[in-house]
Amino acid sequence: MLKCEWRVSSELPLDPDVAASVSVIIPCYRAAATIGRALASVAAQSHKPREVIIVDDASDDKTKKVLRELSEKYDANWLKVYFLPENCGPAAARNYGWEQAGQPFVAFLDADDSWHQEKIALQFGFMKRYPEVVLSGHDCGRESILVRRVARLCQIRPCTLKQLLWHNCLRTPTVMIKRAAVLHFPVDFRYGEDYYLWLGLLATGARAAFLDLPLAVVHKPAFGASGQSAALWRMEQGELRALQAVWRRGSVSSTMITLAMIWSGLKFSRRLLICMVKGRRA
After folding, report:
1. Torsion angle, alpha carbons of 173, 94, 246, 141, to 10
2. What residue ranges do the domains of the chain occupy?
């Protein structure tokens, strides 16, 4: 069983001079303005990952130029940059990076987000201590968390399939997963591909955990910005497809999935209302 309380000081006898056995994967598309910040937050980790893999998804702006400049700045054995010939979406870009990964653990970061400097040390330490856990996530916070010291105690909660049906607590920039996980991202999804994967893994019996520490910053809002109404609907469609897929696996009952889809629709209505209100104020 996973512990309810985790004492950081006693659970992490890790040597910071030895790189963590983690491949960080960052999909990148039109992210010239933010990819440097994301990469810098990885380079600043107290326990650095062994490698970082950036996959450019056929950006048509200055992103490629910025990536080439970053390649010259960092060690070539640590930072590996790949350029896809055509835009395939974040799922395909993450899968491509996953295939190149040479470490037993993979951590995902989006090109416009960043990590607290203790993220790898804490999460990798947890994953090493509990080998039965296939994937884990943690909380996100405001930019001010990046300069704070993390708490010495944190709650660790098992994340079950039924819980995930109601609330996706595993945001992609927080997830660390075993490289050998039996499923990858669905390449035919442009939205909801992460939710599909988490649900699919838990449906196979994989164990997941949530560390109640804010170790990442998502710099743009998940929803509610002006002009995002159309994207909100595509996000909702992706979520519904993910729910339907886990039902087809026979992992949840028809009653349970119907209630989950109704709940998803209610959440979508709330997000749409917030988006409309913010749009009028803008």
Report:
1. 10
2. 5-218, 229-281
Model confidence, pTM: 0.90
Report how far apart, in Å, the C-alpha atoms of 194 and of each of 49, 94, 188, 198 are: 22, 10, 12, 6
- Reported as a single tens digit per residue, the pLDDT across 31-90 is 999 999 999 999 999 999 999 999 999 999 999 999 999 999 999 999 999 999 999 999
Give me the pLDDT at residue 148, please. 67
Strands (DSSP E) found in the chain: 5-7, 20-28, 49-56, 79-83, 105-108, 113-115, 133-140, 153-159, 176-178, 207-218
CATH fold of 5-218 reads: Spore Coat Polysaccharide Biosynthesis Protein SpsA; Chain A (3.90.550)
State how far the Cα of 220 lies from the Cα of 114, in Å rounded to an integer: 11
- Compute mean pLDDT per 10 residues along the chain, 282 residues long, and list them: 45 68 97 96 96 97 96 96 96 98 98 94 92 95 71 81 95 97 94 96 96 90 51 91 94 95 94 79 64
State CA 278 to chain mean position distance: 26
Q: How far apart are CA 192 and CA 217, in angstroms?
A: 20
21 backbone dihedrals φ, ψ, rounded to 5°: -80, 65
> Tokens 């960092």 sit at which residue?
74
